Amino acid sequence: MDKEIKFRSLQELYDRILPALKSKTRELNKKGFNYIHEEDIWNFLKTYKWTSSRDLDLAAMVNDIFNLNDKEIDEYVRNEIKGYRRTVNSDDFLK
């Protein structure tokens, strides 16, 4: 009997592994990486780990989340936000 879980979209898969992402994010936050979010972990793994994987299942994905190297995700996030510049929203809201 095949009990393989099928997902109709990436969003459905993301929602399914979100508890693991949240858990890893809390762990990283306790270590002082307060700027790392669930989306950062997802984007890093999706881009650098999972795109080259074959026959990836939920257990392997959750394992990758929990065994993620702190320095690698830190470097990834710092590089991603390096080019981000905060600007003052000067849209006129007084009318």
Count up the helices.
Answer: 4
Gross geometry: globular
Gyration radius (Cα, Å) is: 17 Å
β-strand number: 0
- Strand content is under 5%
What does this structure look like?
The chain is mainly alpha-helical and 95 residues long. 57% of the residues lie in helices and 0% in strands. It contains 4 helices and no strands. α1 crosses α2. The longest helix has 21 residues. It is globular. It starts with 9 loop residues before the first helix and ends in a 13-residue tail after the last helix. The mean pLDDT is 86.
Give a brief description.
This protein is mostly helical and 95 residues long. The chain has helices at residues 10-30, 38-48, 58-66, 70-82. It has 4 helices and no strands.
Q: Could you list some keywords that capture this structure?
A:
95 residues; globular; 4 helices; 0% strand; mainly alpha
Give the topology, please:
Layout: H1 10-30, H2 38-48, H3 58-66, H4 70-82
Helix pairs in contact: 1-2, 1-3
